Amino acid sequence: MTGPATPMVEVREAHKMFGSLHVLRGVDLTVQPGEVCVVLGPSGSGKSTLLRCLNELEELTGGSVRLDGELLGYREDASGRLHRLHPTAIARQRSRIGMVFQRFHLFPHMTALENVMEAQVQVLKRSKSAARAKAVELLERVGLSGRMDHYPAQLSGGQQQRVAIARALAMDPEIMLFDEPTSALDPELVGEVLAVMKDLAAGGMTMVVVTHEIGFAREVADHVVFMDEGVVVEEGVPAQVLDAPQQERTKDFLSHVL
Amino acid sequence: MSESHDPVPNRIHARPVPRPGRWIAAAILAVLAAMALHGLITNPNFHWDVFFTYVRDVTVIRGVGWTLVLTFGSMLIGVVLAVLLAIMRRSDNPVLRSVSWFYIWLFRGTPIYTQLVFWGLISVLYPKLSLGVPFGPEFLTFDTATVITAFWAALLGLGLNEAAYLAEIVRAGLGSVDKGQEEAARALGMKEATILRRIVIPQAMRVIVPPTGNETISMLKTTSLVLAVPFTLDLTFATNAIGNRIFMPIPLLVVSAFWYLLITSILMVGQHYLERYYGRGSGSERPSRGGPGPRRFRRQAAIKAAGTSKDDPFLEVTP
Description:
The complex is a heterodimer.
Chain A: E1 9-18, E2 21-31, E3 36-40, H1 47-54, E4 62-67, E5 70-71, E6 74-76, E7 82-84, H2 87-94, E8 97-100, H3 112-122, H4 128-141, H5 157-169, E9 175-179, H6 187-202, E10 206-210, H7 214-220, E11 223-228, E12 231-236, H8 238-243, H9 248-257
Helix pairs in contact in A: 3-4, 3-5, 4-5, 5-6
Chain B: H1 20-42, H2 48-54, H3 58-90, H4 94-109, H5 112-120, H6 122-125, E1 128-132, E2 138-143, H7 144-147, H8 150-176, H9 179-187, H10 192-222, H11 235-245, H12 249-277, H13 295-306
Antiparallel strand pairs in B: 1-2
């Protein structure tokens, strides 16, 4: 893995403590532009926490995250000392990172269209007509052109998650993070969300996906990371990690989910 | 016969369970009600002629007007301050948090009557109000008694007290919104103020507004305490004054009770529609898919169906 360009995401020695609970215990992760990185691991392994640290929903206790070379959350002065960024600057950094949640978290008081328009208008200061045009285009792309004026409560789980993906894409993010995007869905609705994600991957979007969908990892991932107990146990291309795992813990995990 | 058109061919026609208790209770209550009504009509001490003379008296109607002004005016002050206090209470800034806590502690911890007497005595406590640098020069000076008249003292006293109660309601409302909503907004790069204004408050409204309606109904009757200031134009003071002057307190008490009941009834109708609009208490019906009905009704139903703001049965705080 010798990326010629600056990595899109570069995590160095990431530690995260929740009180006395040591959730991340020195994680290194590099994601190249255009790469689809799938993070696997048993629950409690720290994979969701890692993802939440990538867009500063959680603050790292130690280590650093760089997005396209830029340090997240801090400014480093000439002597190498860190200064916490102002919340407005952090919000600006977050707007460059798209996030899709397990439980969708659509805004229930807004229609699908308004959900996708909201942050474009409030954060990117786009005009309403420009935001609407972009929202219509994205909702068509995720196959919801007939559902634009529906409220989230009027949509199925799969439809809601596709609106959530469109909402994140509307910000023109440099990278998309998916936190178990299909875990809250009925089995027959998983496919439609994965199809949208495959389409995104094919379009060259950089993605970090936390999921239990081994099939998706095998088919779409460029890079699979297996985490357990707060560390990266094994990583590599899908064929290597999924079909010929070297570590006992990886083999054990895969034998339970496959 | 329509029997043949019944889609249920074997419809059950059973006799209901006998409920003699209901009939006995109804009979006893009917007798008691007749006795009460008889007493009301025939007891000369109610002086119904006096009631009918004064129920539309100019002073009484003016009292109704002032009572309404005090009710809605103090609620307005209360709501504005309460939102401010609730937002301060959630703030990262420990100074703002403590100020809000202290305010609520002070104004909820002392009787409204005491507070109203205090506001009435403000010009004794501080004869002059001035703008200036503490221990330094003063730029503007007012006579307290001319600026804070009895009306303003009553309005401020009621409003500032109400703010403390409403602040708790607003705080509970803001706290009822699912934390995932804030996270999703934050992940999109929204600033905290935008998140509050665009995402949290619209969802919190369905939890905040109905108890605020209740507080308004409660405030209507609390205004009768403004004689503590003393403010002398409200309904209770007006009817008491007339009653004392003509030595007939009872019919004048009935006059004031009549007006309070009438206004409360009107406010209750409003409250009913408010609660229906915000979908409290009724079942968890899903909004019809793209169905008819005014857009704002569908919007409230959608918020309710999403379940991102919880109904809190312990929310309603009444003084």
